[in-house]
Amino acid sequence: MHNVLTRFDFVLIKHSQNTFYSFIKQLNSNFENKCFYFRNFHFVNFVSICFNTQNKIDLNKKNKTIFCKHKSLHNYKYSICNNSYRNSDYIAKMSSEKNVKKHCEHVNLRGENCSVCNNVMESKESKLENGLSNMHSYDYDYIVIGGGPGGMASAKEAAANGAKVLLLDFVKPSNQGTKWGLGGTCVNVGCVPKKLMHYAGHMGSLFKLDSESYGWECEKIQHDWDKLINTVQSHIHSLNFSYTVGLRSSKVKYINGLAKLKNMNTVSYYLKGDKTKEVDVSGKYILIATGCRPNIPEDVEGAKELSITSDDIFSLKKVPGKTLIVGASYVALECAGFLNSLGYDVSVAVRSIVLRGFDQQCANKVKTYMIEQGILFLDGILPKKLTKENNGQIKVLFSNGNSELYDTVLYATGRKGDTQGLNLQTLNITVDKNSNKIITDKYSSTNISNIFAVGDVAFNCPELAPVCIKAGEILARRLFKKSNEIMDYTYIPTAIYTPIEYGSCGYSEEKAYDTFGKENVEIFLQEFNNLEISAVHRKKHKKAQKDEFDIDIGSTCLSKLICLKNEDNVVIGFHYVGPNAGEVTQGMALALKLKVKKSDFDNCIGIHPTDAESFMNLSITLSSGLSFSAKGGCGGGKCG
Amino acid sequence: MAAMAVALRGLGGRFRWRTQAVAGGVRVAARGAAAGQRDYDLLVIGGGSGGLACAKEAAQLGRKVAVVDYVEPSPRGTRWGLGGTCVNVGCIPKKLMHQAALLGGLIRDAPHYGWEVAQPVPHDWRKMAEAVQNHVKSLNWGHRVQLQDRKVKYFNIKASFVDEHTVCGVAKGGKEILLSADHIIIATGGRPRYPTHIEGALEYGITSDDIFWLKESPGKTLVVGASYVALECAGFLTGIGLDTTVMIRSIPLRGFDQQMSSMVIEHMESHGTQFLRGCAPSRVRRLPDGHLQVTWEDCTTGKEDTGTFDTVLWAIGRVPDTRSLNLEKAGVDTSPDTQKILVDSREGTSVPHIYAIGDVVEGRPELTPTAIMAGRLLVQRLFGGSSDLMDYDNVPTTVFTPLEYGCVGLSEEEAVARHGQEHVEVYHAHYKPLEFTVAGRDASQCYVKMVCLREPPQLVLGLHFLGPNAGEVTQGFALGIKCGASYAQVMRTVGIHPTCSEEVVKLRISKRSGLDPTVTGCG
Known about the structure:
heterodimer, A: 640 residues, alpha/beta, seven-stranded mixed β-sheet, 28 strands, 28% helix, disordered N terminus, B: 523 residues
């Protein structure tokens, strides 16, 4: 290994791994293996290689800065061209510098395979400190395990900051054999397909419940499950493809391999999951971003074999038919919601409360609307045993002794960290026993300092795609860009896509009481009707009507702010139940981050007629005991 | 209609308040009744959003209040109930008809989502109109009930000033009544303007006062005007399947960000609305078969052209409803140009105890929520011991065109004019809503831009969002901007996935960088 140089040539190579490696080989043999360093610069199409003989030069990860900064060109008189595509014109610039003896034979930056720039520069000064790091002793600067939003974002950000990055992703098939491509839960079996199915369900509700009054006659419509699955899956496939391309263009090496940790700097993987093909790679830093997978309880006989999960529903080949959803998580309620809206008979078995951890008043409003739309909630009842009938149906024996036949049983009773097989125990990485999630500190670091975890697999981290993307990017910038930014986990907004949506940010009523004491919390709230729904008198599902007069649905919307009384009513919780909850909540999350006060809401002018404007008009407190149902019917606003 | 005659973003200076110098104590001459003997503490003229808010607020504070409201039928004879423009011929019916049009779009998308609908589904105007009109009538009723609940006396009479404390009201049958009050608030709003100089305009044309109350479909429609009213009406008419043309003389959506405005038009064109740009109508005639023949002139070439339509809708602006008020009897000054009432920052007119709020006031945004807030603050100052003034900065608004446009704060042009090109950084993105992607909808105009100061921490000056649910998206950011949000703070906000509003917190590309602002993938 050479760590000194006076003379360095550099080579610019059009990006192509194979050409690159063969070229290095070639160079090494030509120069008696003096090619001691190379680095793949990302976001750019070129690679620089330096040769040396005498003087020292800093080639650790800082070198990019040295070489890039114009200032350094003067300081060191001669410098290596820097490596980025954008800065490639420095070569030209430098060649005009007086003291640079340059023999630029051929600079063809956009050349096909490779263009060699025999740019011989003599360095009279050797101020460049010896900093040749041990970096090159690893195959990669950064190995990311898991190709979900968090892993990919972190990998790309690291690469953008000059790191050599490997991303390993492999999807273990679900119990039912469902597999998918690159992109993780969000794209394949989470946010994206569920929002599309929610949207399809939402459409159905509009067609069946509202459209006639709006002058469109399409109430007698039928839904084709296969067609929806086709649409959803082909969109997902296009995203899978775009991620592969995205990683490539970001210069992240992607390998479809099932990874495990060997030691703190070595990862081994089975190529395409093939246990006979084990490959070792080394990395300075390792990120675990393997996410979570749905958990089916062990103690329910037949559950693992006969039930599906959210891993399967979005690509389900057969029509779901009469469905039992087990669980009360948002995944459970979202699936129940869209299946019901698409026209299937849906029951939800709930052990205790729905949407644990969310504001319970809002959670119950969501549930009430779902009941009004014909979903049957089996409260306090859980399956004990599942058996398959001859006709293919599943017979479910419940804890209350009843049994019922279903076409599909979907478990959504929670998710556990996908850490099995990662070999964490060998490295003594601390894992939470219940959730199988990795314990991390505020720097996303595990108890091994060069091994990190972000996203759903990190313990106590909200299971949300945008959260792990941000955490992953921030981590990469800390590792490769000298940033000291830390992920801020406060006031993270989220939205639940149930038939009537729910968006929230910050404290729930319950958590606010727990944290600050009930006497210090003031809650402002209002229930009202969405204009577009109430104008056409949306009806309850027949199953939910108590008698012939019980036809109109209850109020669709609830707006609620949780404030701290003795801090000038600073808003610490935002909750909205109603249509377009995600869109409504996003901007409010910004305001909550800015420590918005109730009075700021009051002074902000509404946009009429919207649902979001309701928050600008909240005057009733929960503690007053007054009715918080809005009068009038112009949606969230007031027409006077 | 939640309107916006002028763009209203501004860190001061956009609104012209004329403070009237009044010699206090001299003006006692024409008082009909001495203080304390008058019928009411507060008399509100006009039962629209602003007026009703004032009346209810004052009643809440224990005052004796009356509201007088009277809807002069439109030239086509359309009339409506209590609640003013917003409820009857503005925001509410237009948003509902906009929703009907959006549903039409969903029906076209339906097959992609597995819904089997026999296409094309025809639209039934009568059914929609019935639902919309019934809803409006229920709101009229609701307003009556609310006034009753709060013990506000309501008179369905046409009011005019007798003197500065007394108003004479004429009821439908011609019966007259005199009402006196210590304080009077004028909130009569505005009405659509007719281009009376154009032959046949008044006889054959309709306005936004009529469109929502038509029993039958307007059929092939020519909308004249470039206001947001014109574009919204043309948008929903196109959306429910009617052949619709918009005639614009100069620029669309004057006062709004012009890049956004032109994208709104682009989208409408791709959505099926036809545009006649740079044209001005010269006459309207009724043909023997009942159709309307419109003649117009191309303003650049001077060439004349004609077309036949079933309906001609004028949406060329609004005029304040001040003519029949006899303002001069009370001594209330109006602008000689616009006939709007001149007020100071306390909503006070040239007469100390007479105030004006809402669309009838010179230089104020024609928006329901601003009228309501201005009214409530005014009443709190009058009767509640408050001194809070209405802040007209950073008022958000949304135009409900087929692709909605929400904005708050400065337009790009205005930011540049105020701070200089060098000091303004604009972040922008072309995004594709998830629901559009799979339905194969064109998302070329789904666009968001944030106008910031260039100097760190890059204070946000304005936000412009073109896409579905723009109103819902914009509201929260308006709050953030009101709280003084910087670009850095917006970037630190975690997104909600998958939404359109998360594109705002992911805005990385500045216009200055020249990089492609197209958002790819998801996440």
